[in-house]
Amino acid sequence: MALADARVRVPGLIAVEADVAADRHWLDLLARSCARFSPHVVPCLPDAITIDVTGCEHLFGGEAALVEAVAGHVEQNGMTARIACGGTAEAALALARHARLPVVDEGKAIRGLPVAALGLDEEATLGLVRAGLKSVGAVAARPSAALAARFGIEAVRALERLLGEEHCPGTPLRHQAPLRFERRFAEPVAHERAVAAAFAELLADGAQMLEERGLGGRRFRLTLDRSDGAKRRLEIETGAPTRDAALVLRLFDERIASLADPLDPGFGYDRLALHIPLAEPLGATQPALDGAEKAGGRLAELVDRLSTRLGPGSIRRLVPNDSHIPEQAQLALPAIHCPAPMRWPAPRVGEPPLRPLFLFDPPQPVEVLAEVPDGPPHRFRWKRKLHEVRLYEGPERIASEWWHLPPAPLPPAGGAGGGPVLESPQDFRSSSNPSRRREGDLTRDYYRVEDARGRRYWIFRHGLYEEKAQPKWYLHGLFA
Question: Are residues 272 and 371 in the same domain?
Fold first, then answer.
């Protein structure tokens, strides 16, 4: 119906513009997730998915159980669905869109559907209605030649597909075969060179398949089956997608060298299997004139080797974090897992840095002589040494992330209330988990100060006087 008529019936109706591309993308993702029910899944724009369950229903305990499984899967993805079963995909679509569910008699239900269930264009549908053919049964009662002469051959074909007289298979989603390669030996192989040669052949096959698909591997898993039934699995990861067989082979050498329990071939291996469970798009690159990509590639290779030798968490990389809290503005993540490096914000030309390179964790408590209530520091004592402030910049006021904080507890009866306040420098320990921060986080006023000897410090007052009677001062960082 028209939007104005819909708003009359439902005054609180919310209408938004349709995003066809986003709907198509979501429908494709939902269809791919339905591959667990059948290998033949076809998305039907704009709002339907057909699943050919021929020979699959017994795996779920029958057709009814399969329907319940599909409905539960769609509901888990935040959607509601009208599900119907039919002899053909067109019949199931028509029943799901136009019939009153559940359907008891499929043939009777299809013939009682409106002519819109045929899926014809608007002009042909309107012509059928004006001719008095308002249901599929009424159209089916007419001779095919008369329908084709008046409404076109498409009307006859749509009717035959709906009634199951013509089969029109859809184009299912293409599912790429898993990247898995193996070598079997007629006799167990225990010699190291023979095993290495067979593994090199597997890597070459994997690199060729990755290149054909335009992918690069991020995770490689090697499985060695001994003749006595024992299995050994080795896995390596790379920080960037690659299909360089020599690089992957070197990483596996590093992984084998770092094993606490060396590989024991026993009576020999009778099978080697290479599995690439994680792959990402990898396109061709244009070499730069200055060779910068070579330096970046050598650095990524070094990170991969050290992470494989020492463990993924041993080599870390600082990445920017979307937070205005200084100690949480960056995260130290495993270098092999973190995304591509982002560009750090550069200071203005000629301006001093706003943040020091070195931060104390936790901030160091200092004794400060300052004007009350919001004046800058004039003198402070740190590590038993007195520093006279010659120059200062600020304040830079930083509030706590109030949207992450739990509500303050109610004050006890007969006394003043309020949550706990930060009294110890331990309360400033940085954490990427907002729930670990105290609910008494206070406002900070930061000052960049320079003492009489030219050394620069980053000092802040923790709390305003209206927030706390005696705010404390802390030294958070040192400028180079």
Answer: no
* 84 and 218 both lie in a single domain: no
Task: Determine contact, residues 430/329, Cβ cutoff 8 Å.
Answer: no
Domain that holds residue 199: 180-281+292-307
Helix/strand/coil (H/E/C) assignment for every residue in the chain:
CCHHHHHHHCCCCCCCCCCHHHHHHHHHHHHHHHHHCCCCEEEECCCEEEECCCCCHHHHCCHHHHHHHHHHHHHHCCCCCCCCCCCCHHHHHHHHHHCCCCCCCHHHHHHCCEHHHHCCCHHHHHHHHHCCCCEHHHHHCCCHHHHHHHHCHHHHHHHHHHHCCCCCCCCCCCCCCCCEEEEEEEEEECCHHHHHHHHHHHHHHHHHHHHHHCEEEEEEEEEEEECCCCEEEEEEEEEEEECCHHHHHHHHHHHHHCCCCCCCCCCCEEEEEEEEEEEEECCCCCCCCCCHHHHHHHHHHHHHHHHHHHCCCCCEEEEECCCCCHHHCEEEEECCCCCCCCCCCCCCCCCCCCCCCEEEEEEEEEEEEECCCCCCEEEEEECCEEEEEEEEEEEEEECCCHHHCCCCCCCCCCCCCCCCCCCCHHHHCCCCCHHHCCCCCCCEEEEEEEECCCCEEEEEEECCCCCCCCCEEEEEEECC
Q: What is the pLDDT of residue 407?
A: 56
φ, ψ of residue 476 to 5 degrees: the values are -100, -25
Q: Say whether both 124 and 191 belong to one domain.
A: no
Count structural domains, the chain: 3
Whether the link from the prior residue into 102 is cis, omega within 30° of 0, is yes
Could you read off the pLDDT of 406-442 as tens digits, one per residue?
Answer: 555 544 544 443 333 444 444 554 443 433 344 347 8
Q: What is the dihedral of CA 398, 400, 450, 367, to 10 degrees?
A: 140
pTM: 0.51
Structural domain includes residue 346: no
Shared domain check, 26 and 60: yes
Burial degree of 349 (CB within 10 A; 0-12, 13-18, 19+)? exposed
- For the segment 176-186, what is each residue's pLDDT rounded down to a tens digit? 677 899 999 98
Q: Which two tokens stand for residue 412?
A: 């006890």
Place of tokens 């239900």: 109
Q: Kindly report the CATH number assigned to the domain that includes residue 252.
A: 3.30.1490.100
Same domain, 110 and 192: no
pLDDT on residue 343: 65
Q: In the chain, which stretches have pLDDT less than 50?
A: 410-411, 413-426, 429-440
Q: Tell me, what's the pLDDT at 340?
A: 58
Residue with tokens 């409404």: 151
